[in-house]
Design goal:
Layout lengths: L2 H28 L7 E8 L3 E5 L3 E6 L3 E8 L3 E8 L11 E5 L4 E9 L1
Parallel strand pairs: 1-7
Antiparallel strand pairs: 1-3, 2-4, 4-6, 5-7
Length: 114
């Protein structure tokens, strides 16, 4: 007879944990008032140049932010194109262009020897 209340406590605990997880998932997927998602943008370059704006590394932006990106070739090289998540870049073959942040992304500025 003493085992029955123990099972009830275990079942209640599992149910409570499940409800908390479901509530957290719903809150995250529906968005909380005043919460703006931030997404990471990782930028790097190949041999032959650098990214001068915003620079190289990992940057975080709010969703919908338009970021200016500028690739600068070294002497003897020219900019070829942006590779990576290029579907939100205004012009993937322009050294100076913009990118709209909609999700986590990575970009590589590709250069070629002249």
């Amino acid at each position: 007879m003493l085992k029955r209340p123990k099972y009830c406590v275990v079942r209640f605990s599992i149910l409570l944990i499940a409800l908390v997880l479901i509530a957290g998932t719903v809150a995250c997927s529906s968005g909380l008032p005043g919460f703006t998602p931030r997404y990471g943008l990782r930028i790097s370059s190949t041999i032959g140049g650098t990214v001068t704006s915003p620079g190289e590394g990992l940057f975080y932006y709010a969703k919908g932010t338009v970021v200016n990106i500028v690739a600068q070739p070294d002497l003897g090289y020219q900019f070829a194109r942006w590779i990576g998540n290029v579907n939100t870049i205004a012009n993937p073959v322009a050294a100076t262009t913009t990118l709209t942040i909609n999700y986590h992304s990575f970009l590589i500025a590709q250069f070629k020897e002249i």
